[in-house]
Design brief:
By secondary structure, the chain is mostly helical. It has one domain: Orthogonal Bundle (Multidrug-efflux Transporter Regulator, Chain: A, Domain 2). The chain is built from 5 helices and no strands. Helix 4 packs antiparallel against helix 5. GO terms for molecular function: DNA binding; DNA-binding transcription factor activity. This is HTH merR-type domain-containing protein. It holds the Pfam family MerR_1.
Length: 129
């Protein structure tokens, strides 16, 4: 099998090598497979974990929540319910953020669509009419 080192993974997944090392060091991803030389030899499962961590971080999931999830995962099937609850909590947090962004988007879209129609009050809302 072809060695996939940290530089290859960094390029392929668009994650800085320092970030990959940090994630492994603090437990955001499980320990990466090592070649006999001691270098990281990323396997498909390692790439899956890196992609998962990247996706979760981009969505705003905290490092602490990811570390907790990985720790629970490594404890085995006895933590399945706890892991599911953790993911459900993160989903609820992301949903709340999405709702807040949607409300801001709606307000800005309304302002742009009606720009210049509010006279001197740039904060006039459709509810005020």
């Amino acid at each position: 099998m072809i060695l996939m080192n940290i530089k290859d993974v960094s390029t392929k997944l668009d994650i800085p090598a320092d970030t990959l090392r940090y994630w492994e060091r603090v437990g955001v991803i499980p320990p990466v497979t090592r070649a006999t030389s001691g270098y990281r030899d990323y396997q498909p499962a390692d790439l899956d974990w890196c992609n998962f961590a990247k996706c979760m971080r981009e969505a705003g999931v905290s490092i602490e929540a990811l570390i907790e999830y990985i720790d629970l995962y490594q404890q085995g099937d006895s933590t399945t319910d706890t892991r599911k609850t953790l993911l459900e909590d993160q989903l609820a947090t992301i949903q709340a953020k999405r709702d807040a962004v949607q409300a801001t988007y709606d307000k800005l879209a309304y302002k742009i669509a009606h720009y210049g129609q509010h006279g001197l009050n740039p904060f006039a809302h459709k509810e005020e009419k």
